[in-house]
Amino acid sequence: MSWKTLIIKDSEYINVFLDSVVIRTKQGEVKQPIGDLNSVIFESYKTTITTRVINKLAEKGVLTILCDDTLMPNALITPIKGHHKQYEQILNQINWNKKDKLFLWTKIVKNKIENQIDNLKMTNKNFDKVAHLNKFISELQLGDSTNREAHAAKVYFHELFGMEFRRNKDNHINSALNFGYSIIRSAVARTICSKGLHPSISLFHHNGFNAFALADDLMEPFRPIVDLYVFSKIMNEDYFSRNHRIALINLLNCKVTINGKSVYLTNAIEIYIDEVINFFKEKKFSDEKFPDVSSVLYYEL
User: Fold this and answer.
1) What GO biological process terms are annotated to this protein in UniProt (predicted)?
2) Which of 207, 242, 244, 212 is nearest to 229 (CA)?
């Protein structure tokens, strides 16, 4: 199973030799078998990449991300040939029943808030706030029509990061959260495409300019994994560093319990999205197919 994450920082030129990526720098060259790669992150603007590299990575289904000049993920390369029943999958997706979509969105919101509750418990936060979030769960209506998700998020973030914390402020905590979320979003988008789904046909999020609205829907239960890491490892630092970015990328290699098993995060995403697809056929969704953040095992670099 592929598991390595390759981060390209200072390379001048990258090409392919046989089934390996060749990374050339002033100090020499390094070869990395493509079969070992789960993801590749291109950080440097100065790197020259051959089209053969891009095609090989897409062919092997490697998550490939290009960063902008602030080192934030800016582009995701996904293969056009995603699934042997591509047309059938997208046709089914277009015809997903509206009530089924609202039902599933409600379950996603419920699981996300449950994972936020687990984070507050694991970090020994105020029990009254935990009770408050449980109350929001009890008040959930179909499609979260009363927006309990947003109310829960406000209480949750204030309790986790402090009453002065705001998600729209420019600080190292938000930089870390945004970076971590973008990595999870990219991994979810990659899996969505590999399953033959169209990433812009969503359950809930609707934006004519958002090419990955479905990824934004389905990634929600995984966000608390990033939150907990940022709280534990980055919150008390002075700034958001490159080492922090590498650690957040490495969350793809953490283990999380799903369906009663501890698996790598990328495998958990695949199990979860398979269940989403199956839900629209069988009208059943097992809660065990949601990630359990209380069981996360971080892989230390």
Assistant:
1) defense response to virus; maintenance of CRISPR repeat elements
2) 244
126 & 180 share domain: yes
Tokens representing residue 69 in the block: 């000049």
The string over 132-163, giving b where at least 16 C-beta atoms fall within 10 Å of a residue's C-beta and e elsewhere, is bbeebeeebeebbeeebbebbbebbbebbbee
For residue 300, what are the CA distances in angstroms to 54, 182, 249, 255? 29, 20, 12, 11
Q: Tally DSSP H helices, then E strands, for the chain.
A: 10, 11
Confidence of residue 81 (pLDDT cuts 50, 70, 90): low
Give the whole-angstrom CA distance, residue 164 versus residue 176. Answer: 17
CATH of the domain at 52: 3.100.10.20
pTM (2 d.p.): 0.89
145: helix, strand or coil: coil
What are 31's strand-pairing partners? 22
Does the annotation list 205 as a binding residue? yes
Question: What is the percent of the chain where pLDDT is above 70?
Answer: 97
The Cβ of residue 224 has, within 10 Å, a number of other Cβ atoms equal to: 26
Any binding-site annotation on 220?
A: yes
Which DSSP category does 221 fall into? G
77, 103, 137: which is the final residue of a domain? 77
Mean pLDDT value across residues 75-104: 86
For residues 120 and 170, state if they share a domain. Answer: yes
Amino acid identity, residue 272? Answer: Y
CB 101 within 8 A of CB 109: no
Same-domain check for residues 72 and 90: no
Do 34 and 18 belong to one domain? Answer: yes
